[in-house]
Amino acid sequence: MNTKIFLIVGVVVLVMVGVTLFLRGGANQSDMEGNSSGLVVGKNAIYVAEQVPSKAISIAVVRFEAPGFVVIHEDVAGVPGAILGRSSILAAGETESLALIPLSRATKDGEMIHAMLHLDDGDGVFDAGKDDPAEDRIGGKPVTMVVIVSADAVEPGVVNP
Amino acid sequence: MLVLLAAGSIAAVTNATHSWGGYHWARKANPFTLKLGDNVSSAWDSYLAKSSTDWSQSSVLDTTIVAGGTTAWRCRPTNGRVEVCNYNYGNTGWLGVAQIWIRGNHITKGTAKMNDTYFSLASYDTPAWRNLVMCQEIAHTFGLDHQDEDFNNTNLGTCMDYTADPDGPPSNEHPNAHDYAELETIYSHLDTINTFSQKVAYLGNLDDADDVAEFGESLRKDRKGKTSLYVRDLDKGEKVLTFVLWIE
User: CATH for B18-186, among 3.20.20.60, 2.60.40.10, 3.40.390.10, 1.25.40.10?
Assistant: First the structure.
């Protein structure tokens, strides 16, 4: 009887260890692709590396509290201006190495652009009038990263916030 | 007793490794010395110094603080070393971020950024938060990942553990023994090349020195095809030219 209990407990332990190893294997695979989760202070976050002039922009990592969009704005005297492009809808949680976001014009050497998070209003379609910017829980400001465009920008590396 | 045994087994497994994808600096011998470019303001200098000292306790690597090679805002990487920066990067949602550039699984350069937009706020402008973030972001550039990513569980006593209470107890402001053990694991093998910057050793060891770390790109070659003049771009139009007289 005692032997049977010992075997059952042993099997449970082995299964738990196996599951844990499996989950860790998944995490390591993500890291190889630059998919580490971040040290963030809010439920919404974004990191974009310096970009070369282009008609598209690459986003390293975003985190959304609810489905939303990354919206690229022109810079007007240091604040976000007209929209140059946006991502497709992104799921809640963390997404790394997004597909390139196409822009309506090529960015220029030396200019700045703003990558801002907007939350979907529930219809899955971006509408600047309805899909409000995601607010940083600290200060209530829109979660935004100012991005430098430079002809000699270094290719983005692997990110671990 | 069996339940305790099971719990102990799981804990041992979950903490067994926190390598960041196997990325590491290539080097021919241990310990190697990694340069940390100081692009931080005076408010951060002591934290950079402390983190450098902490991580240099490792048996496989040493760090040394050198003059920064970039501006804090851009925080561009420099071949063969890590640039450390702080700036008001905005309401981005992150306190700190580390970035590495890799060739295969070898790290060739890295950056670590601290976001002063948050550190200017009372809730984060504390020695504990600054220690935690500086220590963690620098460590990512060595190839270390987090030990734990739950902000709300008990501190593990390492800066590689997410927390909402960095000074604990236990404090998460510095590395712990497991971090040093993980570094020993990551750097237990040796490579045939160095990807970290070495001023002297490179000169004699490289046959093809077209792009030597720190010196920049090849600009001129001598009659034997070896680079005799390098140029490295700094920001604001500045360039550094390095002339090299090679040993025959």
Answer: 3.40.390.10
